[in-house]
Amino acid sequence: MASAKDIRNQIKAVQNTSKITKAMELVAASKMRKAQNRARDAKSYAEGIERIIHNLMQSHPEYAHPFLVERPQVNRVGVIVVSTDKGLCGGLNSNVLRHALGLMREQQVKIDVLTIGRRGAAFMRRFGANSLGSREEISDAPVIGDIIGLTKIAMNHFIDGKLDRIFLVSSEFINTMTQRPKVVQLLPCPEVREPTHSGYWDYLYEPESREVLDGLLTRYVESLVFNAVIENKACEHSARMVAMKSASDNAKDIIKDLRITYNKARQAAITQEIAEICAGSAATS
Amino acid sequence: MGTPLLTVLVATAEQEVFHGEAARVIAPSVDGELAILPGHTPLLAQLRPGILRIYCLGNEEEPYECTDVVIVGGYLEAQPDAVTILADAIERADEIDAALAAKAVEQAKQHISNSKGMNIDRAIMELELAIARLQVARKNQPHSLN
Fold first, then answer.
1. Which of A152, A204, A283, B72 is the most buried (most CB within 10 A)?
2. From the list B12, B42, B75, which residue is nearest A201 (CB)?
3. In chain B, residues 87-146 whose CB comes closer than 8 Å to chain A
4. Same domain (yes/no): A134, A110
5. DSSP code of residue A170
6. A219 lies in a domain?
7. Nearest Cα residue to A155 out of A231, A230, A216
8. What's the pLDDT tens digit per position in A216-257?
9. CATH code of the domain in which A45 resides
10. Is residue A31 part of a domain?
11. Measured in whole angstroms, how far is the alpha carbon of residue A283 from the centre of its chain?
């Protein structure tokens, strides 16, 4: 059995760790609230533009933008992976990366990756995937400029025909306890499954259809990626808060167990001492 | 009752600005002002800096209640029953300082007289934005003084 002093040291160590996890939990909780608000605020734009693209896919534009046309043969696929910069956020990154890996294994063709977040970049490097670009250290209040460079690379590759399909893998924020990995086809825009506007129709365009569509579709891709980044931030802080909370709870349990062991050891030592004294006095009297 | 209305959504990438029903929307498209009423044919338009006006139904005395905001640019989609405006940036009247806006107009005018060639388009855009800002700020001023 460990001596009382050893156990005391151990308790001290666990207490110190729990102080750190508790602090991280509180920090994550306050960041989480802000990140969740931000994700909620940004949702309108993303939903609006998705609805427009959904409608656009059902119209019959005279100008077939490359982003709207499914290619007959897919030779190379791009995957954009959104992950966090820092760890200690539970299974968030490993879930997303496992999903991305599953998606990459499914493809029968060569794959290029683009990563957002240091964790994803490091993982893809280890895995030996061919990276076209990576964006790391995005602040807690992301702005659209943070991801424009990366989406530009992806879109240029797509337009040049170096990539025929691009997927976006990210975490979907459901609530504080639950985050789910999500895969969407970024380009070409996915085909409509449930038509809402039937018939043969087209938009009026101001100015030219080409100009409007070029701008709008660029915004669409940026918005999807930006939204994924914002949502990922909300996921990150939520997951970290939950992970740190369970770490703090664990530490509390361990301290409790150690306390019992310590008290037992102390009691045993006292009992033994009394027994020895009694035995000693019995022998002399 | 029975007046057809548009479901209007105005949003920037960071937040939602307006979501609700309106009777009319006037937006600055690149080819000129664009008024959208219920029953409009599907339309996709690119917007330039200017004033975005949303007319909601008001009370008996004033049939329409108008909300003005400065829009920096973006896209507009019209469907017969809905309008979606995706703005690059929006400034509400209470966020604008009229004095600063007036100064910006002067500055933008100077820029135009100084710049030539490619820069002139940019300068004109800046002037338009500055004028829109000033108009919205002036319109809102009496309210803010009360």
1. B72
2. B42
3. none
4. yes
5. E
6. yes
7. A216
8. 999 999 999 999 999 999 999 999 999 999 999 999 999 999
9. 3.40.1380.10
10. no
11. 72
